[in-house]
Structures are given as C-alpha cells and as structure tokens.
Amino acid sequence: MPKHGIKIVTQQTGLSPHVLRVWEKRYQAVTPMRTDTNRRLYTDSELQRLKALAILTGLGYAIGQIARLSCSELQVLLRKHDNSINDRSEAPATDLGDEQEKGFISRAIQATKEMDQAKLETIFDEASIAFGYSGLLERVMVPFIKLVGQLWQEGHISSSDEHAASCAIREYLAHTTRPFTSSTSSPSLIVTTPSGQLHEIGAVIAASLARKAGWNVTYLGASLPAEEIASAAIKRQAKAVALSIVYPVDDPHLLGELGRLRRHLPNTPIIVGGQGAAALAPQLSEFKMKHLSSIREFNTCLCKIRSCSF
C-alpha cells in the first residue's frame, strides 16, 4: 500500500522534487499513485528503487541507461560496486558519461561568458538529472569551477563573469540542499575557510555534500580566524571540521592559523581540501589533519568519521 509522500522520498534518497518528477515523466523510473488531491504516494519498493537509482547515478551511471532496469538488475549493479559505494573512485567512466560531462561544462562556460545565470541553473538541473546530485557536484560543478578559475587567471573571462558564476553556484546549492534535512541526532560538521582564504566555493560544495549525507552542517563562510572556527566547533559539539584552501598557499600566516586551530581542537578530525591543499600536504600531516586530494574522497572520509573509524 503506498504510504510515502514526496517529502519523505526526497529526504531518504537525496533527490530533489524536480529530479524525481523528471525521472518519472521522462524515464518512467517509477510510477507513483496519486491521491484525490494529486499528491504522489510511493510504495516501499518504489522508495528502495529510487534509492538504488540515486546511488548508481552518483557512481557515474546515466539515468537514461538504468531507469528501465528491473529491481533485481539494479541490485546486481549495486553488488558489483559494493566496495565503491562509499569510495566513488571506482565509478564507471563510460564514453557517453565523459561526453555528457564535457557537454555540460562547455555549455556552463558559455553561459558564464554570457552572464546568463538562469541558463547556468538549467544546465545544473540537467546534469543533476543525468548524474544525480553527487554526480552533478563531482563530475560537472567542480571541474567547471576549476576551469572558470583558470580562464579568469588567463584573462579569457572577466572578474565580473567569475563572480557571477560563483554567486549562481552559491544560490543554486543553497536552494537545492533544502530538501536534505537532518535529524537532531545527526553528527555536526563545521565548514569554512581559514583566515586569508577568500575563495569559498569549494567549502560551499563540501557543505552541500555533507548535508546530502545527513550531517548537521554549520557553514561559517570564508576567511575565519582559528579561534573563531574552534569556538564554533566547541559550541556546536562538532564531530569534525572541514576546511577549503585554494590560494594563496604562500600566505605566511596560513600555517600559523592551521597550527593554532589544531591546538584549540586537539582531538577533533580536521579535513582539508581544495586545489591549494596539496602544496601543504607535509604540514597538514604534521598537524594531524586529513588532506583530501579530490571531492570524491570527502564522502568516504565523512563515513569513516561517522562510524568512528577515522
């Protein structure tokens, strides 16, 4: 008997209502029944099917390739990737998927040059439908952000183009993570950038991924002193702190900030990512901070912390 409303389904699958509707209408992934007031109701089996589809699209499968598979066929695929559900590094990279990614990124760059934020949002929606929410972030949005930064540094796009793209991403992520609610018993995570690190998009993406994974995220914005980060972590009884470092990595105060943060939080896991973090890997190891070389490692790291195996 159908019993799950769309709010429960979005919370348990991580899929937005918009993605659910497109998967139903365009791909016939499920066919929920309707109430007299036209509300969707999903059965337990439909909910499990959507969970499987969400995981597989996050692993790299295009929804068009798997939407019509039977539940048993979906389970076969899930078992095939049992060892990579938490570690997306083994996600299948099909030529079709690669071409789709390149197409989305190319269109997003063009929308950036045209300063068309509405078009950019539409492209992100389409990528989310094709790859799932995690796939959107990992396979499209992160490479897109890196390319925007590169084009800006090389003078191919203006500062206003780069700022408009960053604002569009922040607004999009703020809007699309609203369905990912967490309970009061969920672990708490602080996300920010250290003092002097003004580029926050990496931190915004990390916060979005953590919310999707069910964490209670407190996002503090960019460029916070170590003492303020530590104070927030203690106040929120945070299970971990996530930092994004982009540039400049030669900031003479950065290592001092990281060292003070570790002294203030001697037992709290501190995760550090971003394209500037690799240059600081030896120092991060000395500070007993976990360096992540890619956004894909972030989910795995959160799972380990949550299960106390960090």
TrEMBL record:
Keywords: DNA-binding, Repressor, Transcription, Transcription regulation
SUPFAM superfamilies, A to Z: Cobalamin (vitamin B12)-binding domain, Putative DNA-binding domain
Annotated ranges, domain B12-binding: 186-286
Keyword match Transcription: yes
MF (Gene Ontology): cobalamin binding; DNA binding; DNA-binding transcription factor activity; metal ion binding
Key word Transcription present: yes
Highest taxon of the lineage: Bacteria
PROSITE patterns reported in the protein's UniProt record: B12_BINDING (PS51332), HTH_MERR_2 (PS50937)
Occurrences of domain HTH merR-type (ranges): 3-72
InterPro entries: Cbl-bd_cap, Cobalamin-bd, Cobalamin-bd_sf, DNA-bd_dom_put_sf, MerR-type_HTH_dom, MerR_fam, Meth_synthase_dom
PANTHER family (alphabetical): MERR-FAMILY TRANSCRIPTIONAL REGULATOR (PTHR30204:SF69), REDOX-CYCLING DRUG-SENSING TRANSCRIPTIONAL ACTIVATOR SOXR (PTHR30204)
Protein name: B12 binding domain-containing protein
Species assigned in the record: Rubritalea squalenifaciens DSM 18772
Lineage, highest ranks first: Bacteria, Pseudomonadati, Verrucomicrobiota, Verrucomicrobiia, Verrucomicrobiales
